[in-house]
TrEMBL record, chain A:
Comment field (misc): In eukaryotes there are cytoplasmic, mitochondrial and chloroplastic isozymes.
Catalytic activity, as annotated: L-cysteine + 2-oxoglutarate = 2-oxo-3-sulfanylpropanoate + L-glutamate; L-aspartate + 2-oxoglutarate = oxaloacetate + L-glutamate; (2S)-2-aminobutanoate + 2-oxoglutarate = 2-oxobutanoate + L-glutamate; 3-sulfino-L-alanine + 2-oxoglutarate = 3-sulfinopyruvate + L-glutamate
CC annotations in GO: cytosol
Protein name from the UniProt record: Aspartate aminotransferase
Gene that encodes the chain: GOT1
Organism (species): Denticeps clupeoides
Molecular function as annotated in GO: L-aspartate:2-oxoglutarate aminotransferase activity; L-cysteine transaminase activity; pyridoxal phosphate binding
EC identifiers of the protein: 2.6.1.1
Residues in Aminotransferase class I/classII large domain copies: 32-405
InterPro entries: Aminotransferase_I/II_large (IPR004839), Asp_trans (IPR000796), NHTrfase_class1_PyrdxlP-BS (IPR004838), PyrdxlP-dep_Trfase (IPR015424), PyrdxlP-dep_Trfase_major (IPR015421), PyrdxlP-dep_Trfase_small (IPR015422)
PANTHER family: ASPARTATE AMINOTRANSFERASE
Gene3D superfamilies assigned: Aspartate Aminotransferase, domain 1, Type I PLP-dependent aspartate aminotransferase-like (Major domain)
From TrEMBL, chain B:
Cofactor: pyridoxal 5'-phosphate
Pfam family, one: Aminotran_1_2
Coiled-coil segments on the chain, per record: none
Protein name per the record: Aspartate aminotransferase
Gene Ontology biological-process entries: L-aspartate catabolic process
InterPro entries tied to this protein: Aminotransferase_I/II_large, Asp_trans, NHTrfase_class1_PyrdxlP-BS, PyrdxlP-dep_Trfase, PyrdxlP-dep_Trfase_major, PyrdxlP-dep_Trfase_small
Organism: Denticeps clupeoides
A Gene Ontology cellular-component term: mitochondrial matrix
Keyword field contains Secreted: no
């Protein structure tokens, strides 16, 4: 066998942390093991849950022999794009009525962020945005950095967000970073259920953020991966996005249907674009097409069909909302129970943040050593940051987890 | 209310009748209108045409003899089988469905290939062929730093150029198609390949060259392989039509297998859009043949780092269908028959087109129509002839004279021949 033609030595890359955690969990033989890592919903039996409405719609698709596997348009399934944007912006959104909302069907929330980032790099502020600052929250979903860096942005910076001391939002830090950001900077905002902290600004706090962003001419890029999942109510979870639109902002909103539809592996996402008017929107979409064509050509059809059929049928839509509420309610219950148990145990510290935080994740406040203890001694798998996925908690394991946290906090510094 | 407007801005702010720049200007006023897609534009124009005899030969998708999209029987069976399993929807790993990746590599390389036995290759699931090429281009751009040039055959699939360019590679070309013969410019190709700087990347279409339908013969592939080895070039195979070209999946993969056997550690893009009719499900694979299993592991880790910031992990549905077919003996057998049937229908349409052209009285040499292979045919028609064909006969195709044989049916082949003869006599 001849030597490879001139390939540079390829170094081993470190595995992505969250997937390594799951792999380690899988290999662990301990009967009490608990996976509080990857962000996917679990039932109270600790099992994945395919939404009943999804099973129903799968059958509808399977029984419809008029359907085939032909290519979708480059921008995706039209009924999916429009109904998804309506979910984010509201059925009666003035922006939609004014015909200045468009969308690109993408591969999950990641894909939507990717296409949005690629567009911004080419067109945001002049035609080369290599130096344009992109701000992501401190902390944020770990892939945000990579998505924007790989789209060619050299200056991806943190904006203050999480106050570790008070275990809440560092509003003054956030606002001051907005004030000092160079004009035209891009800000990635979590629409609701902030990942990983579970800490969202209040409505009043969002208003303050918007005021500064308007004044400082900053670009709004929402990441909306948990709509419906946070409070159990779609409209409530979309309040921030809709507020910004009502204030006249042009925005990008990367939507994921991985969690709220439980369609993780079908890669269903939507990049909603709100522009000043239809003419600007049209030009933007034409450039989005060019970007899509050199990335994946056109998006996968199965997931988009599932979501589209559901959203466009009143009965199915109602059933979906109900399924979403089921998931959100279980998470809320686990939050309440975990807090109650920690308080009952007399675990040092305050645990109000467990129920004040919202969505799938909770930033426990455990330090790296305490996390190590949890993983190595107790076989409870959570991220080094102290982030836990509330969905990993069940009525069967919650006592064990609470006791373990208690041990970690009291015995490990 | 008079609005003070930036002259670049079109459109009126309906929310605020004021003159502040925030309200009246758009972030996107400098965004240029993108040009219409050369292929999509064809289909759009076709849709608008009211002529009942209209034919769409732009579409790069198989059609049955009634001109309808075709869902393979083995696909329907696989889907039914999958449905009974009531599988969950949990994320795939970044590299995709393992059973699919294994079967995908086996299909290309042959199940007894030494490369697979030694574990010295890595295959990741990708978003069909485009996604595979993109991941491959990104990988080469990042890790094949000894050379930035990718040599494409002249002509090549239109999307190759922007994909590699956007990934940071430089595009060059080697002679391939001879418009005088409507065939392979073998001498021209060898002459050009001889001049390619060492370690550059050379793109080869494994079979059913797109857009020309012109493939090298085995003896020619052998000479190309020897020359490429001498020049120490990195081979990037694009195989989007395995099974679809000759009807035989082994025959269509012959060049890929030969090159590997000769010691080329190739990179390979595969698509299941056409040969399984899974277009919209986006099923593909990207394979890197490495020097050993240890290198393959390192390469795999880096491919994951490249994929995660694009789409995190790939879609399940299509890969699950493809995997079921490839890994279930009865379905696999059925698939081979269906692929052969599709290829056979195309071959028959080629023969009928030539036969009808002769019947029309054409004295031109149309041999290339039956010599060429795969979905596409480079007719040799000039742009003005193409325009006439579209305007006078409502036959839609790309300006370069390429037609998709998949759009030809026994119902329209006579009309098509008549049109072609009229504009070329």
């Amino acid at each position: 066998v001849a030597p490879p033609s001139g390939k540079t030595e390829v170094p081993q890359a470190a595995p992505v942390a969250v997937f390594k955690l799951t792999a380690d969990f899988r290999d662990d033989k301990d009967p009490n093991k608990v996976n509080l890592g990857v962000g996917a919903y679990r039932t109270d039996e600790g099992q994945p849950w395919v939404l009943p409405v999804v099973r129903k719609v799968e059958k509808i698709i399977a029984d419809d022999h008029s359907l085939n596997h032909e290519y979708l348009p480059i921008l995706g399934l039209p009924e999916f794009r429009s109904s998804s944007s309506k979910i984010a912006l509201g059925e009666d959104s003035p922006a939609i009525l004014e015909n200045r909302v468009g969308a690109v069907q993408c591969l999950g929330g990641t894909g939507a962020l990717k296409i949005g980032a690629e567009f911004l790099h080419r067109w945001h502020n002049g035609q080369d945005n290599t130096k344009t600052p992109v701000y992501v929250s401190a902390p944020t979903w770990e892939n945000h950095n990579a998505v924007f860096a790989n789209a060619g942005f050299e200056d991806v910076r943190p904006y203050k967000y999480w106050d570790a001391e008070k275990r809440g939002l560092d509003l003054s830090g956030f606002l001051s970073d907005l004030e000092s950001a160079p004009e035209h900077s891009i800000f990635v905002l979590h629409a609701c259920a902030h990942n990983p902290t579970g800490t969202d600004p209040s409505q009043d706090e969002w208003k303050q953020v918007a005021e500064v962003m308007k004044r400082r001419n900053l670009f709004v890029f929402f990441d909306s991966a948990y709509q419906g999942f946070a409070s159990g109510c779609l409209d409530k979870d979309a309040w921030a996005v809709r507020y910004f639109v009502s204030q006249g902002f042009e925005i990008f909103c990367a939507q994921s249907f991985s969690k709220n539809f439980g369609l993780y592996n079908e890669r269903v996402g939507n990049l909603t674009i709100v522009a000043k008017d239809n003419e600007n929107l049209t030009r933007v979409l034409s450039q989005m097409e060019k970007i899509v064509r050199i990335t994946w050509s056109n998006p996968p059809s199965q997931g988009a069909r599932l979501v589209s059929i559901t959203l466009n049928d009143p009965e199915l839509f109602a059933e979906w909302k109900d399924n979403v509420k089921t998931m959100a309610d279980r998470v809320l219950l686990m939050r309440a129970q975990l807090k109650a148990k920690l308080q009952a145990l007399g675990t040092p510290g305050t645990w109000e943040h467990i129920t004040e935080q919202i969505g799938m994740f909770s930033f426990t406040g455990l330090n790296p050593q305490q996390v190590q203890y949890m993983v190595k001694q107790k076989h409870i798998y959570l991220m080094a940051s102290g982030r836990i996925n509330m969905c990993g908690l069940t009525t069967k394991n919650i006592d064990y987890v609470a006791e373990s946290i208690h041990e970690a906090v009291t015995t490990v510094q | 209310n008079v609005l003070l407007r930036d002259t670049m801005v079109v459109g009126i702010s309906v929310k605020h009748g004021c003159s502040c720049p925030f309200c009246c200007s758009s972030w996107w006023s400098e965004v240029q209108m993108g040009p219409p897609d050369p292929i999509l534009g064809v289909t759009e124009a076709f849709k608008r045409d009211t002529n009942p005899k209209k034919i769409n030969l732009g579409v790069g998708a198989y059609r049955d003899d009634q001109g309808k999209p075709y869902v393979l029987n083995c696909v329907r069976k696989a889907e039914a089988q999958i449905a009974t399993k009531k599988l969950d929807k949990e994320y795939l790993t970044i590299g995709g469905l393992a059973e699919f990746n294994k079967a995908c590599a086996q299909l290309a390389l042959g199940p007894d290939n030494e490369v697979l036995k030694s574990g010295r290759s890595i295959t990741v699931q990708t978003i069909s062929g485009t996604g595979s090429l993109r991941v491959g281009a990104n990988f080469l751009s990042r890790f094949h730093t000894v050379a930035k040039d990718v040599y494409l055959p002249k002509p090549s699939w239109g999307n190759h150029t922007p994909i590699f360019r956007d990934a940071g590679m430089q595009l060059k070309a080697y002679s391939y198609y001879d418009p005088k013969t409507c065939g392979f410019d073998f001498k021209g190709a060898l002459d050009d390949i001889l001049k390619i700087p060492e370690k550059s990347v050379i793109m080869l279409h494994a079979c059913a060259h797109n857009p020309t339908g012109v493939d090298p013969r085995p003896e020619q592939w052998k000479e190309i392989s020897a020359l490429v080895k001498k020049r120490n070039l990195l081979v990037f195979f694009d195989m989007a039509y395995q099974g679809f070209a000759s009807g035989d999946i082994d025959r269509d993969a012959w060049a890929v297998r030969y090159f590997i056997e000769q010691g080329h550690n190739v990179v390979l893009s595969q698509s299941f859009a056409k040969n399984m009719g899974l277009y919209g499900e986006r099923v593909g694979g990207f394979t890197v043949v490495c020097k050993d299993a240890e290198e393959a592991k390192r390469v795999e880790s880096q491919l994951k780092i490249l994929i995660r910031p694009i789409y995190s992990n790939p879609p399940m549905n299509g890969a699950r269908i493809a995997s079921t077919i490839l890994n279930t003996p009865e379905l696999y057998k059925e698939w081979l028959v269906e692929v052969k049937d599709m290829a056979t229908r195309i071959i028959r349409m080629r023969e009928e087109l030539v036969g009808n052209l002769k019947k029309e009285g054409s004295t031109l040499n149309w041999q290339h129509v039956t010599d060429q292979i795969g979905m596409f045919c480079f007719t040799g028609l000039k742009p003005d002839q193409v325009e006439r064909l579209t305007k006078e006969f409502s036959v839609y195709m790309t300006k370069d004279g390429r037609i998709s044989m998949a759009g030809v049916t026994s119902g329209n082949v006579g009309y098509l021949a008549h049109g072609i003869h009229t504009v070329t006599k």
